[in-house]
Amino acid sequence: MAIWLVLARGVAINLNEVETFTVNPLLQSKLTFLKFFQGNNQSSCVNKIFRDNFHSHYSFQFRAFLTSYYRTIIDVDKYLDGILKLCLEYAGVFIIKFYSGGRVMKKILVLFAFLFIGIPFIAYGQDELTYSGSSTIGMSVLQEGGALKAFEAQTGLKFKSVEIPGSGKGIKALLEGKVTLAGASRALEAGEKKEKLIGHTIGYDAIAVFVHKNNPVKNLTKEQLKGIFTGQIKNWKEVGGKDSPITPNTEIAGQQRATMLAFQEMAMDKAPYAKGFKEIDLPRDQIVDVAKNENSLCTVSFGLLAAVSADLKNKVKTVTVNGTEPSDKNIQSGAYLISRPLLLVTKGLPKDDVKKFIGFMLSREGQEIVNKNFVPVRR
């Protein structure tokens, strides 16, 4: 954008001497396109770019911006801060250093990526709805819970992508600008808050302890759970069950999955998990594994039980923890030991379509969707 402001003032810029400071495979071809116009009427050049290549709803805003300023700007430096602010807001940034008449101007200008025809944005556009993170939220709320379909039916807006690699990876993707919305089935950490991440609570969940329906054990204490998952307790008879080996399953270790981390903190006093447990990628499939193995147990979001087929659902049960069941009342009050918030996470305050989606999830219809499998924040 800034380069067009300069061109419109008639400053001769030798595009052959433009030095790029960002790696972009299409940048050089676009500079070649710009060179075609060098020496031509600069206002016509700008107008042609806008006329031929601006089709998004942003075009009117930036057309008005240029119309107001490109003939009157005297000092580019005076407007650099404002241009940078706009650039950061709409994303897609190129930084260049240019020369004029052989003299180094030492100006750093910002050029919007969308001025270059056909270049895909380096970061997702502000308006795009893209989700990555918690499988608890992604599966039980967005997908199978029906939030995505209900939101699209109400607004006509659709998510470009929904990925469920877990809370940690989702937050990492958000920080890297790869998605506009992350899901976390845990509270944000202090370091994440310092990165200006904001968690929007849409509901509450319990990490339930699932066992096979034929298992006679009805309750496990925090100490017993810690013993099982640290490898100190290895037989069901040690906790009031049959003389059979305990075969726990977990999510994939080392992937910073929120459920494993939350359980480790709340039930295991942050002690390390024992090695050798069966590792399963999707939490729903952990429940399926318990349904097929009478000696197994797993700690999974209570809401994910709804994602299991009816025949398998009838083959598992939850046990109480410290004598407390994972009821709505106990989850919301914190009486149930292993409860946690469900967050939609944004980098800074939400804007545009992301703001609309969070508003939808906190509306009556959105909270009814949360209430299918979890405890809503509003009733």
Q: How would you explain this protein's 3D organization?
A:
The protein has 379 residues and is an alpha/beta fold. It has 3 domains: 2-115, no CATH class; 130-203 and 346-376, D-Maltodextrin-Binding Protein, domain 2 (3-Layer(aba) Sandwich), CATH 3.40.190; 205-339, Periplasmic binding protein-like II (D-Maltodextrin-Binding Protein, domain 2, 3-Layer(aba) Sandwich), CATH 3.40.190.10. The protein contains 16 helices and 14 strands. The strands form 2 sheets. Strands 4, 5, 6, 7, 8, 9, 10, 11, 12, 13 and 14 form an 11-stranded mixed β-sheet that branches. A 3-stranded antiparallel β-sheet has the order 1-2-3. The longest helix has 15 residues, at 76-90. The chain is globular and about 60 Å long. Mean pLDDT is 76; it is low at 1-126.
Spell out the key features of this protein:
379 residues; alpha/beta; D-Maltodextrin-Binding Protein, domain 2; eleven-stranded mixed beta sheet; three-stranded antiparallel beta sheet; 16 helices; 14 strands; 21% strand; globular; disordered N terminus
